[in-house]
Amino acid sequence: MHTDMDSIVDCYDVEYEHNNFGYNNKQWIMDNVDVYDHVTKVIRYHPKYFEHYIKTHRYLMYDDGPLPFTTRHYLAIIAAARNKCNYLVNLHEKEFLAEGGDTKWLNGLEFIPQKLRAIYDINKILAHRPWLLTKEHIERLTKGTNSWSLAEVVHAIVILSHFHSLSSFVFSCGLNQELDASLKNEPESPTVSEPEPVIKPSTTPPFIQRLKLEQQRMHQMMKEQEENKKILQQSNSQVLMNGVNSDNIEMLMKRMQDLSDKKKECSETELSNRFKNVELQAAQLTSPADVVIVNISPSISHYVDDPNYAYQDFARRGAENIPHTFRIQDYSWDDHGYSLVNRLYNDVGFLLDDKFRVAYNLTYKTLAGRQNVDTSKFRRAIWNYIQCIFGIRHDDYDYGEVNKLLDRPLKTFIKTACCFPDRITKQDYDSILVELLDSEKVHVNLMILEAKNQAMLLYALRELNR
Ligand SMILES: CC(C)C[C@H](N)C(=O)O
């Protein structure tokens, strides 16, 4: 019988062949397939990135490190709960219990030790307004009785930003809705007093099924390509485009090409104005955020304090008297963040660095079924736009490119995924970039995950450094 597990592994064979990755850790990944939850399975559709994701995830949550295992899972819970991501909360409640965690803690923030409670402010600020973190927030933790060591603080911050950004990924793929539904069809989850040692997903949600089908289709196409390249070109448009008008993609390709051909020198002031312009437009994107609806499900509300605290657009940040632009030339991951985090929490910087690099550079040189496309301009625009939403400016980048390459619906999607992830619905996911394959949309969502994660870490590490 062809089991769920078999077909997922098959899909990976397809992806490996298709992308021709020089990746040699396949056996390890295959051996561990049954312990992965649904979200991790979706990430596995990009094996080159997945290798670094899973290494980091395992290091943060299960390897030797400054914080006890139960604390790590509790941090995952409060980070996911801030983003209203029920799926990740439930998952880490189970893991928390499996590590022997105190069941009382799952009754909510009032039941946890003072030391752990003390980090909640950092969790809240990091989740929504990381630019407001100050060294005083960190000092409050590291001084006095029950204090945190710096290594513990760094471990906690890395876990918190990992789960804040992972929550964005869950919602941006439209998975929370699906997983909620599929969890309801699963057998009763264990009660608090009966921890389940290993998380074994049973039913496969429709989104993962769709990805699988897409992979199979790609596999079939690759075979055909070897036999007859001409037939392939036809099937690219017929099979992959699914009858969708491809004008948008042609236009995007033309714009990317134009930008690569015409490299215009731009004055510093002009570059700075273009950044401000994109930032201002991002603030003006109509987002449901303007209406404050606090809608936290009762199953996670006990992990959330101050539920009205949310993302704030830069235009309103001015009122807080915060210089809002974070300039990468003053504090960058490569030159500063990476070495600091490495020093304080042994070698995690290497793992994060590899993961960021792969997420930033990942490409299959494809676009909506077309082969050999240089998508670097498009991907860079997405990455920098995400960080712009968090007030981060890459000084050498011309933000005019963002406006040429990203249309308004895509920008709205990105902003919502970063700042109000729970407001993304499956329909939002379906309605943007309609010409792209699902695996390409997941690719965009992985960039949202990592660019956001890096943005949060940059703010936190800059303050730690002070
Ligand atoms: C996000 C996608 C447009 C990326 C593209 N498929 C690439 O391989 O570069």
From TrEMBL:
Residues spanning the signal sequence: none
GO-annotated biological processes: cellular response to L-leucine; cellular response to leucine starvation; negative regulation of TORC1 signaling; positive regulation of macroautophagy; regulation of response to reactive oxygen species
Gene3D superfamilies referenced in this protein's UniProt entry, alphabetically: AhpD-like
Coiled coil: 208-269
Catalytic activity: a hydroperoxide + L-cysteinyl-[protein] = S-hydroxy-L-cysteinyl-[protein] + an alcohol
Superkingdom of origin: Eukaryota
A Gene Ontology term for the protein's cellular component: cytoplasm
Residue segments, region Disordered: 184-204
Subcellular location: Cytoplasm
GO molecular function, one term: oxidoreductase activity, acting on peroxide as acceptor
UniProt main location, coarse: cytoplasm
Keywords on record: Coiled coil, Cytoplasm, Oxidoreductase
InterPro entries: AhpD-like (IPR029032), Sestrin (IPR006730)
Similarity comment: family membership: Belongs to the sestrin family.
Annotated protein name in UniProt: P53 regulated pa26 nuclear protein sestrin
Organism: Chironomus riparius
